[in-house]
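Retro notes, structure queue

What went well: the backlog is down to a handful. What didn't: a couple of records were mislabeled last round, so from now on we paste the full input next to the output in the thread. Example, using (S)-2-hydroxy-acid oxidase from Theobroma cacao:
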Amino acid sequence: MAAEPVNVNGFRELARQALPKMYYDFFAGGAEDQYTLKENEEAFHRITIQPRVLLDVSSIDLSTTVLGYNISMPVMIAPTSRHKLANPSGEIATARAASACNTIMVLSISSTCTLEEVAVCCNAVRFFQLYVYKRRDISAKLVQRAENNGYKAIVVTGDSPRHGRREADIKNKIIVPELKNLEGLLSTNIVTDGGSNLDALVNWTRDPSFCWEDIGWLKSITKLPILIKGVLTQEDAMKALEVGVDAIIVSNHGARQLDYSPPTISVLEEVVHAVDGKVPVFLDGGVRRGTDIFKAMALGAQAVLVGRPVIYGLAAKGEYGVRRVLEMLKDELELAMSLSGCSSVKEITRSHVRTKHDHILSML
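Corresponding output:
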């Protein structure tokens, strides 16, 4: 029997062994040269932590709130698609792990369990991730279903008017199952002449004309808070404020859309400064260690979201694997806080980290 991993990265190798190559590549891969995929993790390595010593860290409080919901740690589950390709229990196992760890799961619109099935499986706080389709009536129906089934927020993905070029999927000619949430609303069974059916599916269904002005339409059809995911610049952060979103997620879609877009941790502070405390800012992309979470919070994120590590845990060991991934990150964050002199997440400040930019400034 394989040894229990000692960190989150250990689950990646277990997932690689457990999954058919086509599915492992689907989850692990990024766009084109995968520059941004590598940089999402590498950029964290260029930030150092500046600990304070001889402070009382006999009790560490990792709890925080997200849009008024109490969670046990500043780590949420990012929306990722098609969990049944990783494990037969799919999103139900992921949601139960989120519930067990007392954190929030963002369910992908492209899930392999329906949003209703996930809603009744446990009492986790759930948000629903939305792509806006050319047929707005279908997007509206999905939002209503999410609201009626107790989802607490809508996470609109803003960085995907078209599908990023994921060359492993094209090479593997990946064929993905129909989307459960769209059954009876839209046929997602696209036949292609070879290559991945994912590209054809996305470009056939998604609305590339969806823009900032349309957030008003979304606000008119739901009472739920709206988060915008995919912001990487101060200009877009200010736009998000203008149209009245409730929170921003700094994200490059796990490096699966535009290659050579910046690693998220490198632009987090720019977005935080532009927002100036008016709405919460979250981050996803490249978080693999408790120290990564610490660094993101020091640079102004209220919490982080993790995607691939959750999938790797799910592929390796089902619900238990997802729970272990979340527990590992929590334990590592607790240790990082303790060794840095922070007894609560509120005590993590900008002075606790040093970025490449800080190094340059100190030399001037």
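Agreed that this is the format going forward. Reviewer comment attached to the example: DSSP finds 14 helices and twelve strands in the chain.
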